[in-house]
Specification:
The complex is a heterodimer. Chain A is of the alpha/beta class. Chain A folds into 5 domains: about 5-140, 3-Layer(aba) Sandwich (Rossmann fold), CATH 3.40.50; about 140-240 and about 340-355 and about 525-590, FAD/NAD(P)-binding domain (3-Layer(bba) Sandwich); about 240-335, no CATH class; about 355-520, FAD/NAD(P)-binding domain (3-Layer(bba) Sandwich), CATH 3.50.50; about 600-655, 2-Layer Sandwich (Alpha-Beta Plaits), CATH 3.30.70. Chain A contains 18 helices and 34 strands. A 5-stranded parallel β-sheet of chain A has the order 10-7-6-18-29, covered by helices on one side. Chain B is of the alpha/beta class. Chain B has 2 domains: about 35-120, Glutathione S-transferase Yfyf (Class Pi), Chain A, domain 2 (Up-down Bundle), CATH 1.20.1050.140; about 140-275, Rossmann fold (3-Layer(aba) Sandwich), CATH 3.40.50. Chain B is built from 14 helices and 8 strands. In chain B, the strands form 2 sheets. Chain B has a 4-stranded parallel β-sheet with strand order 2-1-3-4, with helices on both faces. Chain B has a 4-stranded parallel β-sheet with strand order 6-5-7-8, with helices on both faces. The two termini of chain B are about 20 Å apart. Classes of the chains: A alpha/beta, B alpha/beta. The interface between A and B is small, with 9 and 8 residues.
Chain lengths: ~675, ~300
């Protein structure tokens, strides 16, 4: 029988963290108090425990004072638990003989009374000292990582991440919801501030992705289910029916020319509804993959009146001139159905992008009321050579604009819509101002709250626009109206705005209004969040693990985020972030294994097999063993949430690091403190 | 459907035509209105500008009376009453000091305001409780051929947009369309009518009135429909001044939406207060044509 009272030798360290802790907690006083507690053979205060000398101090003390338990009272375990566990291990102990007390985030940073804060630190330290006495030696398990990766979303972020992984020799699945990759960037005409053509710099990357041997590109597909854990995910992907055999279609587009609809007459979403397409179509000339698809909602060979969500039904009523045109290639298949594929990957990069703010939500700006009010994305298509007008800026009423107003911050920096700055609107407004002036020679008015042009070459671009003779009026626009007061205003759109620099209310008549709509999370961001077990911030963008130090990591190890799904950003930042996400994934893949925190639960022999824990486990880690008639926990799946432990009616589930006597000792410690 | 009814001073005075038309229309739709017993001034205009505390106390007394009578839904047709009652609710909720002032004043007359009553506007009740379909069914004389400029004024949507859009309200548009009228697009629907400026700074006030009437005429409206007694008064009452200031009287009538409803429902004209307006509204919907085998009820 081990005599604990003699055997336990605890070393206690309280960290000043510079002034972070020491300013509110009397650290020497805490150390003095803890020194009086049973089993404590050594108690110190130190300026920076996380520094190298701090860590060496622990290692030295373990050896010199024959310590077998270590407690550090400092910051959050999220930051330095790993540091101190490693120091404990380097000193020759099992790393789980260490315990950490948070007296910074939970104490010094949130309290204002030094005396009370010091008392609280003592109480928490006493709890930790009593707890650590009960700690046991535990082993970290290693689980192999599947080297294949999944990238969700084929915008510039997904493309960049997929290419980085593929170039490093990893197999990548790139899943894109739309029929082509390219995302929003494919819709842009030029990119700021250099004004290089968006297609010219994007399409080479798209075709590289399309042809890279390491990349399996699944466009028109969606992830529907994700199971497993870091290093070993099983992902289900729905490949939506495009009624075209992808292996047989050569992208010749003869079917489009020969379609029974001689003229395109259906809303072309790639062109933001400004153009028309046929029932069989390819979204844009450089679409990747170069494979057409058929829209069963308007194709004559499908029945009408099918409700959304229901499977399309073939009517066989069309002459099928498309099939004729396809000829021997025989790529058209009206009987195609959605298919589910299952893949196994070790890491996932989520790059699902954004949507633009719906301008109809601000009726005072007249979008949807006045035909000549456009969103910025519509104007991108309008000035684009492959857009619906071939790059000519012709308004919905057939006229060419002589004056244009660009309204900034539509759906941004506004408590009534979104409070955040969408970061790209000032710059893309400048770009559109330049392009519109170039295309039309019109007078351009920019209405801004603040011009935000931080970025390489951005302020210079703003200066260039000022030199080009564009007008800049500071003030949030009140309304866009066709209420004319003077003759000059008749037939125009009048922008009413308080010019906050001149201190007057102005009425500016223009022919065209461009709304610089902000960026917001995708409509189904919450579903995607659940799918990949991530978190969202209050605004709905995916939450990074740490805003500064882990910007591409999520709280789900092995799942990384890149691009605008994490928050509004421009193309340079997106590309950089996508590279970072790929690097994180590569680091995990090349390490080859993940270490698993041993805080998993296990079942004791007295389990009665009631199965009540099985449906409660959020990670489906518990199964029922028919031979032993007991529950079994898969350690690889267990995340240590403790739900099963709390629910077991017979108390037959134990969780490492959270055993009853550990928790009770901790509670006792904090309650015993007066 | 039953509501407490808070007429306020306007509906008993200058805006009598509003009450005269609203009560029979609501009754016709099966909406029961019970006038709040012993109501007092809502606290609007001068009160609110001079002493918010006293204004809120006045408004809160009406809310407390409504609660006491079990009438938690208080119908306030006048825009100023509607706004001040709403404002009082917000103030009491947001500012503990204001709640204390109100509570103390009410306690001195053994009243209590818990904050549970809801202030409703007739448009809100008509669209959301009665429903457009029920209204459409009561229309026996569709306002076919009548072009109306819907004018909401400022106070029912600002600062509190409770049942309609703050910048582009549409409930009255829908209502008037349900009556069979043609609604002209009127971008000034929530612009200022001049308010009390017509009395204090007549040049500025009359200018506002002129802008509103002129734009309605330009857009081909036969009349304006409004929800507010002050708006109606300003738009209807200053044509002589318009003539002297602009040489253009803009003789276009302004009616309460409830008067137009009464006409469409075929209610007796003399009960709708149509004669009270300074600018007469002479247009009448065509008499109902009885379909074979169906009798048309005209109340």
């Amino acid at each position: 029988m081990v005599n604990f009272k003699e055997d336990i030798r605890i070393g206690f360290y309280v960290c000043h963290c510079g002034h972070n802790i020491a300013a509110m907690v009397d650290c020497p006083e805490v150390a003095k108090y803890v020194a009086t507690l049973p089993n404590v053979v050594l108690s110190r205060d130190y300026k920076y425990m996380c520094s190298d000398p701090g860590q060496e101090l622990i290692q030295m003390d373990i050896r010199e004072h024959k310590l077998n338990r270590v407690v550090v009272a400092s910051c959050s375990p999220l930051l330095h638990e790993h540091t101190f566990r490693s120091a404990t291990e380097a000193g020759g102990l099992n790393p789980f003989f260490f315990h950490m007390v948070n007296i910074r985030e939970h104490n010094s940073w949130v309290h204002t009374d030094r005396k009370e804060a010091t008392e609280k630190a003592k109480g928490l330290s006493q709890a930790a000292v009593m707890r650590v006495a009960k700690h046991k030696s535990l082993d970290v398990k290693r689980v192999p990582v599947n080297p294949e990766a999944l990238v969700v979303g084929g915008g510039i972020a997904g493309i960049t991440a997929a290419m980085a992984l593929a170039k490093a020799g990893k197999k990548v699945y790139l899943v894109e919801r739309e029929p082509s990759i390219g995302g929003h960037m494919a819709k842009f005409d030029k990119t700021f501030p250099t004004l290089d053509c968006a297609a010219c710099i994007l399409t080479p990357k798209m075709s590289e992705v399309g042809s890279h041997p390491n990349i399996t590109l699944w466009s028109y597909s969606e992830v529907t289910k994700v199971d497993g854990y870091v290093g070993n995910y099983t992902v289900q992907v729905k490949r939506k029916a495009r009624y075209i055999d992808e292996d047989l279609c050569t992208g010749c587009q003869d079917c489009i020319t020969q379609c029974v609809f001689k003229e395109p007459k259906f809303e072309d979403l790639f062109n933001e509804g400004l153009g028309k397409r046929k029932p069989v179509y390819i979204p844009f000339p450089q679409a990747t993959p170069q494979i057409v698809l058929i829209d069963p909602e308007v194709c004559l060979n499908f029945k009408r009146g099918i409700k959304p969500g229901q499977e399309p039904v073939v009517s066989d009523k069309c002459k099928k001139t498309c099939v004729e045109a396809c000829g021997e290639k025989n790529a058209i298949d009206f009987t195609q159905k959605d298919e589910l594929e299952e893949i196994k990957v070790g890491t996932i990069i989520v790059a699902t992008g954004f949507k633009t703010f719906e301008a109809e939500r601000l009726p005072q700006y007249g979008y949807g009321i006045y035909p000549n009010v456009y969103t910025a994305l519509e104007v991108e298509r309008l000035v684009n050579a492959s857009g619906p007008t071939g790059g000519d800026v012709i308004l919905r009423d057939g006229k060419e604009p002589k004056s244009i107003g660009i309204i900034h911050c539509v759906g941004s920096r506004d408590k009534k819509t979104h409070v955040w700055c969408s970061r790209v609107c000032c710059m893309y407004s400048l770009k559109l101002a330049h392009l519109l002036k170039e295309h039309t020679g019109a007078e351009i008015y920019n209405f801004y709250i603040d011009m935000r042009t931080p970025g390489k070459g951005y302020e210079e671009f703003y200066n260039q626009l000022l030199d080009e003779g564009n007008h800049f009026i500071r003030g949030r626009v009140g309304e866009v109206t066709d209420w004319a007061v003077t003759k000059e205003e008749e037939g125009k759109l009048v922008i009413r705005v308080e010019d906050t620099l001149a201190g007057v209310v102005r009425r500016i008549p223009v022919d065209m209004v461009v709304l610089a709509t902000g960026l917001e999370p995708q409509k189904d961001a919450q579903d995607v969040r659940r799918l990949f077990n991530m978190s969202c911030g209050s605004e709905g963008f995916f939450l990074e693990r740490h805003p500064k130090l882990a910007p591409v990591n999520t709280f789900n190890d092995g799942v990384y985020i890149a691009g605008c799904c994490q928050g509004p950003r421009d193309i340079p930042d997106t590309v950089a972030q996508a590279g970072a996400a790929a690097a994180e994934a590569l680091a995990l893949i090349d390490t080859g294994y993940v270490e698993q925190e041993p805080n998993t639960a296990y079942i004791l022999a007295d389990c009665c097999g009631c199965k009540s824990c099985i449906p409660l486990c959020p990670y489906t880690a518990i199964t029922y063993d028919e031979t032993t008639l007991k529950a079994v926990i898969n350690e690889a799946l267990c995340k240590g949430c403790g739900t099963c432990v709390g629910s077991c009616p017979s108390g037959s589930i134990v969780q490492n690091l959270f055993e009853d006597d550990e928790i009770f000792s901790e509670i006792e410690g904090v309650l015993a403190f007066k | 459907m039953k509501y407490s009814y808070f007429p306020g001073c306007s509906l008993k005075g200058l805006g009598r035509a509003y009450e005269e038309s609203l009560l029979p229309v609501m009754k016709h739709l099966g909406v029961e209105l019970q006038e709040l017993n012993d109501w007092n001034c809502c606290g609007a205009t001068a009160y609110m500008a001079v002493d918010e505390g006293k204004a809120c106390v006045l408004a809160a007394r009406n809310l407390a009376l409504a609660e006491q009578n079990g009438g938690h839904q208080l119908l306030a047709p006048c825009s100023a009453c509607y706004m001040v009652l709403n404002k009082t609710q917000h103030y009491c909720q947001d500012y503990p000091q204001m709640k204390e002032t109100v509570d103390r004043a009410l306690a001195s007359v053994n009243l209590k305001y818990s904050g549970h009553s809801t202030v409703r506007h007739p448009l809100d009740v008509l669209i959301n409780d009665v429903g457009l379909e029920a209204i459409r069914q009561k229309v026996v004389r569709p306002l076919k051929g009548l072009k109306i400029a819907p004018y909401y004024g400022c106070q029912i949507v600002r600062p509190y947009a409770t049942f309609d859009d703050q910048f582009n309200p549409v409930t009255m548009d829908k209502l008037l369309q349900a009556l069979g009228a043609e609604v002209v697009r009127y971008p000034l629907k929530t612009k200022c009518c001049g308010g009390s400026l017509t009395g204090t700074l007549p040049d500025a006030g009359i200018r506002m009135v002129y802008i509103l009437l002129n734009e309605a005429r330009k857009r081909g409206a036969d009349c304006l429909a409004t929800v507010c007694p002050l708006c109606q008064f300003n738009l209807d009452g200053y044509h002589a001044q318009l003539r002297s200031q602009y040489g253009d009287a803009v003789l276009i009538p302004t009616l309460y939406f409830s008067q137009l409803m009464g006409l469409a429902f075929g209610l007796p004209e003399e009960e709708l207060g149509l004669k009270r307006a300074a600018i007469p509204f002479r247009w009448r919907p065509a008499a109902p044509v009885a379909k074979a085998g169906a009798s048309v009820a005209v109340a």
